[in-house]
Amino acid sequence: MNNILQIQFSTKSAGSSAWRLHNAFKKIPGYSSEVISLIRDDDQRDGVYYMPSFSKFLAKINNKIEGFLFKYSKEKYGLFSSPVIGSRLTNHPSFKRADVVYIHWVQMGFLTLNEIENIVNTGKKVIFVLHDMWGITGGCHHSGNCEQYKNGCTKCPILLGRKNITQDQAEQKKRIYSRSNVSIISPSKWLAECAMNSYAANGCKVINIPNYFDTKTFKPDPEKLNKRVAKGNQHTKIISFAAVDITSVYKGFTYLKKALEYLPTIYPDESIEIQMIGAGDLGDLSSIPYKVNCLGYLSDEEEMANALSISDLYVIPSIMENQPTIIIESLSCGVPVVGFKIGGIPDMIDHLKNGYLAEPLDYKSLAEGIKYCLENNLKGFKLENFQPEYVLDKHLTFLNEV
Question: What is the tens place of the pLDDT at every residue in 243-252?
């Protein structure tokens, strides 16, 4: 029996990849799976065990301490983590039952590097799943144009004059990854290459396996036309954009706004509506020459699937991304996707077939992509290596190897 444990901050939103992989393993003869999550779900999920309330309290204390110790521009650099307080896991019954431990996204006060090292030191097979760059940097979650992660983060632009903090994190991660029982999975080819070239993970076994995605919720909707007729927008072209925090520096809303302002100059079609999904104050949208519908944050899968399925196009203007689930969700609904040619986005979009890859940070190229997809009535579809059977087979093969 292969007993697998998934450790994840939350099973919601981006954490859904761990939850879906957990459900996939449960269906395989000879495998069992459990999840340990810091954040509780609204309803108890089968096989998911939640940390006690005290752990969540410790996480809040950690986040306050980190906020006090590390003052920097989040608007410019995004998230930086150097955990100081976290929970203990090695005595958890689920951990003791596990043969293989998948460590997913465990920041925001869930686990410290010391506890991660304790997990590795138990000798169990440990697989780190990189959902962003934190696992191979001195603390930033996305390095942007900085390549200090390749040499040990000795000159961090975020914490100027405090290089010991970033260097110490990089050194500890290097020590963790040097153990023979440790491997790394990267959902994107881009981040797999970053890991192999990094100071921390150099020499560690690294493999690219896309996130597992198998849900019947996201699919083309045969009632799409009827739903749009009911809403009075059957002749409208709906362009969607979504993010948990729309104002995040990573999500690139500024580029989408500029692209929409520019779009009428190359595509003078007024029958366009913009559908915004997510939280955050978008400020003045009056410069966008189209009707904008703000739906707010949608936590329910069915609500999100309904919003995507009535769309004609999804645009992801992110400037830093690993493998955003929203692209697979859109393509599964038959909706083509336009995005910048950065990070793991090119893995998912076959240019001019199921979407359009715009030149990085070029809002005019983004607008050209919108025009192309709408003019050619492109349809979305998942590429073969994102099919659930293919992804699960890659995991099983990898587990047999390690």
Answer: 888 888 889 9
